[in-house]
């Protein structure tokens, strides 16, 4: 291999990488804010008794879960401006695309954890004379929300990694900056490795935390 | 311990200590001697060590202290850190568990013949013949090619007993084998065990079913707090216990004055 | 809507799209087969007794699960030829990257399915005196594979979706072809929607199949 490693080429140019990381984190946190809240609302629609609400919601969820994220993002960036005649800041578009994707996956997570609350608990609530609203607020929601935290975190980290895809449509995130730097310095090995380590440095602790959380709750993984 | 006493005991447990971790002691110095042909029922409160005792005898657990001999041969011993279990002796003991533990991916017949083929090298045809005979004895012949998920709890448990019997054990252990069954399925399993008892199979059993215990036992041991509290014929331990603790337990379970 | 949609533009490009789809499918199936085998080996290493193997395998899995697939792809595409000192074709690079990724995620599947086979099954094996080889080959492994089946299918669907990323390194899969056509015809809505639908039409029935297999499997193993 006639290629000498020169980490310095990267460490001397960390500025753009930090900027890119800032954009990436912005994308991730904003998309998660959307995904965690809208996902819950969507889950309620999916569980609704009214087919008029339930079927479109289910279609939404299935569509985002059964198509590649890159297709969703490219579609968003090229089609939304044309269709709706709006021109948004690329970062905002990225947040929306990632946010909608995450909403669908989180809706699944909420749905599963709501349905996982044992029937017996609801029966006990009925036997104790609680009204339907009280049963939902005091029995279903606390348990469902607590159970969904690990999955929401895992999905959140998934979005963090998926945010790298916006580099393909030209958003100046960490991935984009990394690719630019690699091309400029002709040092792909060092650059890409360091960028990968950036992502790992954030993903790994969170996934370890999720694992710890699940072990504490006694979930068998 | 004289030579005569040695050969007349089927199972001899000496000063058995078993715990989990540094703080939990489940068995605290158990001494039990089982004669050939005896049917021992072990009763007692939850956590008193009954199931653990059975698991130790089956060679499933590590022990901290004590020895177990079987038919005069050393079986289980320990140096305090590692437990030595003689697999040749272990093979002569069979066990049936509370949750059947059949192999769900194999048919009933395959469940029965797996061990004879792989442990004893028995030919498939010969094993199948013996399997068919045992299933016929238990009234389950038509289930030979069914899968465990298609059987009722009582049927699964009877298959579990049949599977253990295929290896011709010299001692059978039953760990709460009817506790997980619907009441109407309990009788068919107990009938099979009574059949075995009538044929002279030595057995050690843990059960909550006191009426069944009375029917099948030739000897009852009341085990609480990891030690033997009372040990004697069923009429005594179940009907007219000598120890106050036993009396208390029996009264609580039977709701009568013993 | 300020513009009109014209889906007929797709008719001109059905051949190109079909070719792209064929490349996607070829790549997916190849990487599923290689990746699952790799995942099985890694899963064994992670559950095994050799500490060195265990640590290496775990590091591998954590790396591939903790970084974007895009960067894994870029690394294999741009860096591996430099490391190996030889040129790699698009297809080979993509195949290597996706196989490694599939290996990482399936190893997790195998690891958890091995753990899910209950401890009582081992008790029954010991009580019957089964030799170790029989315990593993005839009792534990078949149950682990059955349990892994639905999740493995899920992993395959994930790989199918991730395969769209190879378009970013210039490989002519369905997504790449679709993007090209969309750029050439300036009709992104029709073309990209059609591309999305093709992925959907393949992935969606498979997700239903996963649910079906899971139900069947749980029923069979519920004994």
Layout of strands and helices, then pairs:
The complex is a heterotrimer of chains A (221), B (258) and C (223).
Chain A: H1 8-11, H2 14-46, H3 51-65, H4 69-84, H5 90-115, H6 119-127, H7 132-162, H8 174-185, H9 188-216
Chain B: H1 3-8, E1 11-20, E2 24-34, E3 39-43, H2 50-57, E4 65-70, E5 73-78, E6 83-85, H3 87-90, E7 93-96, H4 108-120, H5 124-137, H6 153-165, E8 171-175, H7 183-198, E9 203-206, H8 210-216, E10 219-224, E11 227-232, H9 234-239, H10 244-254
Parallel strand pairs in B: 3-9, 3-10, 7-8, 8-9
Antiparallel strand pairs in B: 1-2, 1-4, 4-5, 5-6, 10-11
Chain C: H1 14-47, H2 51-66, H3 69-84, H4 90-116, H5 119-127, H6 132-162, H7 174-185, H8 188-221
Task: Report the uncertain regions of chain C.
Answer: none
Domains counted in the coordinates of chain C: how many?
A: 1
CATH topology of the domain at 26-172 in chain A: MetI-like fold
Give the CATH class of the domain at 26-172 in chain A: Mainly Alpha
Rg estimate of chain A, integer Å: 21 Å
* Proper CATH architecture of chain C: Orthogonal Bundle
Summary, kept brief:
The complex is a heterotrimer of chains A (221), B (258) and C (223). Chain B has helices at 3-8, 50-57, 87-90, 108-120, 124-137, 153-165, 183-198, 210-216, 234-239, 244-254, and strands at 11-20, 24-34, 39-43, 65-70, 73-78, 83-85, 93-96, 171-175, 203-206, 219-224, 227-232.
Task: From the structure above, extract its key features.
heterotrimer, B: 258 residues, alpha/beta, 6-stranded mixed sheet, 11 strands, 38% helix, 26% strand, C: 223 residues, mainly alpha, MetI-like fold, 80% helix
Detailed description of the structure:
- The complex is a heterotrimer of chains A (221), B (258) and C (223).
- Chain A has 221 residues and is mainly α.
- Chain A has a domain of 147 residues: MetI-like fold.
- Chain A is built from 9 helices and no strands.
- Chain A is flat and about 75 Å long.
- Chain B is of the alpha/beta class and 258 residues long.
- In chain B, the strands form 2 sheets. A 6-stranded mixed beta sheet of chain B has the order 7-8-9-3-10-11, sandwiched between helices. A 5-stranded antiparallel beta sheet of chain B has the order 2-1-4-5-6.
- Chain B is globular and about 50 Å long.
- Chain C is mainly alpha-helical and 223 residues long.
- Chain C is built from 8 helices and no strands.
- Chain C is flat and about 75 Å long.
- Classes of the chains: A mainly alpha (221), B alpha/beta (258), C mainly alpha (223).
- Chains in contact: A-C, B-C.
- At the A-C interface, helix 3, helix 4, helix 8 and helix 9 of A face helix 2, helix 3, helix 4, helix 6 and helix 7 of C.
């Amino acid at each position: 291999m006639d290629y000498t490693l020169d980490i310095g080429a990267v460490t001397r140019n960390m500025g753009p990488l930090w900027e890119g990381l800032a954009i990436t984190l912005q994308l991730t946190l904003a998309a998660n804010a959307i995904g965690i809240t809208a996902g819950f609302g969507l889950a309620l629609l999916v569980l609704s008794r009214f087919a008029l609400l339930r079927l479109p919601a289910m279609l939404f969820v299935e569509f985002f879960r059964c198509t590649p994220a890159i297709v969703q993002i490219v579609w968003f960036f090229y089609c939304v401006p044309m269709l709706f005649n709006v021109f948004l800041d690329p970062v905002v578009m990225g947040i929306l695309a990632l946010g909608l994707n995450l909403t669908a996956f989180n809706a699944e997570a909420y749905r599963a954890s709501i349905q996982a609350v044992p029937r017996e608990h609801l029966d006990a609530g009925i036997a104790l004379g609680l009204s339907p609203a009280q049963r939902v607020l005091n029995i279903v929601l606390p348990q469902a929300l607590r159970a969904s935290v690990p999955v929401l975190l895992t999905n959140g980290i998934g979005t963090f990694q998926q945010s790298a895809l916006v580099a393909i449509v030209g958003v100046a995130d960490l991935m984009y900056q990394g690719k630019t730097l690699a091309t400029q310095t002709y040092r792909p090995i060092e650059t890409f490795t360091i960028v990968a380590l950036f992502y790992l440095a954030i993903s790994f602790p969170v996934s370890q935390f999720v694992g710890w959380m699940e072990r504490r709750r006694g979930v068998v993984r | 311990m004289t030579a005569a006493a040695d050969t007349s005991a089927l199972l001899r447990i000496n000063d058995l200590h078993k715990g989990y971790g540094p703080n939990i002691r489940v068995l605290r110095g158990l001494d039990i001697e089982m004669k050939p042909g005896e049917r021992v029922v072990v009763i007692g409160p939850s956590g008193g060590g009954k199931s653990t005792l059975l698991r130790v005898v089956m060679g499933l657990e590590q022990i901290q202290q004590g020895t177990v001999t079987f038919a005069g041969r050393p079986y289980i011993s320990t140096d305090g850190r590692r437990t030595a279990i003689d697999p040749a002796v272990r093979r002569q003991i069979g066990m049936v568990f509370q949750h059947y533990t059949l192999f769900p991916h194999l048919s009933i017949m395959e469940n029965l013949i797996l061990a004879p083929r792989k442990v004893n090298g028995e030919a498939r045809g010969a094993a199948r013949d013996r399997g068919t005979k045992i299933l016929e004895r238990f009234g389950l012949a038509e289930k030979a090619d069914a899968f465990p998920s298609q059987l009722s709890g009582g049927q699964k448990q009877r298959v579990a007993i049949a599977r253990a019997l295929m290896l011709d054990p010299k001692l059978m252990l039953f760990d709460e084998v009817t506790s997980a069954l619907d009441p109407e399925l309990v009788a068919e399993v107990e009938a099979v065990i009574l059949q075995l008892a009538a044929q002279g199979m030595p057995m050690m059993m843990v059960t909550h079913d006191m009426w069944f215990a009375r029917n099948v036992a030739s000897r009852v041991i009341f085990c609480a707090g990891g030690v033997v509290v009372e040990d004697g014929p069923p009429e005594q331990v179940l009907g007219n216990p000598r120890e106050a603790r036993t009396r208390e337990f029996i009264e609580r379970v039977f709701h009568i004055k013993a | 809507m300020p513009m009109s949609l014209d889906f007929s533009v797709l008719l001109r490009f059905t051949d190109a799209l079909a070719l792209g789809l064929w490349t996607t499918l070829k790549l997916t199936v190849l990487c599923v087969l290689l990746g699952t085998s790799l995942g099985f080996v890694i899963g064994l290493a992670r559950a095994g007794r050799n500490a060195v193997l265990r640590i290496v395998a775990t590091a591998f899995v954590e790396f591939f699960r903790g970084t974007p697939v895009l960067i894994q792809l870029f690394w294999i595409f741009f860096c591996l030829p430099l490391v190996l000192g030889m040129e790699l074709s698009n297809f080979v690079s993509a195949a290597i990257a996706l196989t490694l990724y599939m290996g990482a995620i399936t190893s997790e599947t195998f690891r958890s399915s091995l753990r899910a086979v209950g401890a009582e099954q081992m008790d029954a094996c010991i009580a019957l005196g089964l030799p170790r080889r029989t315990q593993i080959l005839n009792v534990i492994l078949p149950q682990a594979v059955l349990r892994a089946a639905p999740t493995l299918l899920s992993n395959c669907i994930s790989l199918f979706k991730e395969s769209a990323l190879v378009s970013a390194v210039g490989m002519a899969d369905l997504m790449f072809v679709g993007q090209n056509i969309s750029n050439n015809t300036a009709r992104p809505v029709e073309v990209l929607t059609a591309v999305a639908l093709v992925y959907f039409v393949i992935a969606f029935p498979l997700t239903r199949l996963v649910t079906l297999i899971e139900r069947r499997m749980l029923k069979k193993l519920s004994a």
